Amino acid sequence: MQTSWFAGPPAVGAARLAQKSQKAFQPERLRRMNGRERVLALLEGRPVDRLPLMPITMMFAADLIGVKYGQYVTDYRLLVEGQMRTAERFDADLVSAISDPAREAADLGAKVRFFEDQPPAFVESEALLADKSKLSRLKVPDPASTPRMLDRIRAVALFKEKMAGQRIIEGWIEGPCAYAANLRGINTLMLDFYDDPAFVNELLTFVTELGIAFARAQRDAGAELMGVGDAVSSLVGRAIFEEIIAPYHLKFVEALRSMGLKTRSHICGNTTKICKARASLGYDIIDIDSPVSLEHARAEMGPETIILGNIPTVKVMEQGTPEEVRAAAAACHRACGAKHMISAGCEVPRKTPHANMDALREYAYSLAVTGNEAPASGAH
Ligand SMILES: [Zn+2]
To answer: Residues lining ligand 1 (ion), CB within 5 A?
Structure first.
């Protein structure tokens, strides 16, 4: 809840907090930060006024401004408007260019179906690299010369023009395993891991170059944080993730960091068995989806990893009450401690009641009063 002392002079707030808490007074906590300052402060180990609120919204944002999702993913001006209005309405600390996993692959020539009001989808039966020999003829294009990647680059540039410095601007690329699956077909790729490791490595090398080029173009346009979505990694099993996929994530992280980007790893689904490996990759933020216990994630990832998530998207965000949303946010915070970002485990479903997004916002603001202390069990 946004409390009245935000409106008053800082000294009043300081006095009230000092009365409430026996802890040493930290003036940095009381100055209200904007979203960009808040995210960067947490990432750089500085005090924050409250934990960042970082929900992934896509179809929810399109619905909020009354446009079909098919328009949202093909017209950057609508994506930017949807993100900005969502962030303003619910005080999210980011705006994001995330939309669908098919931008890069479509620009390479993969067959993608578009829908009026749903995300684009790959035609799995007609994968671009159904014939492996085609890989040697694929080239990484200049992202600015392609339609779908350019649309995202323009979204990032428009975010920068409209609101640089206010909220963190997040670009988005796919992770190595996702790219490989998008080009080859997920089922075929699963067989390739066993049948043709040399081809898999060649493919992962190519997509790493692709992802880095797309990230650089978004960084040049104004992105400060780069999300790397690699949902397929939750399906390949621990051994394949650690031995085959992780080395390419390390290359991604090294390249993104050298560009000055902050990094975020998003792998939805059940990543229980790869928590430890994920923590070793060097991403600044690690998203944990709701099938994973946050207590387990924290134990595996150590105290310093910034964990984002993992309020259940459907059961709580879409179908729960505001009270249940606040309770779930508090439970995530308790499990993660101070190195935490408030969010659902994955995309906020489009039918999520606005009252439930308000509840997330209220939870975030309540922390500005309590000094970001996680509430005791049962209280929130
Ligand atoms: Zn996800």
So the answer is: 268, 346
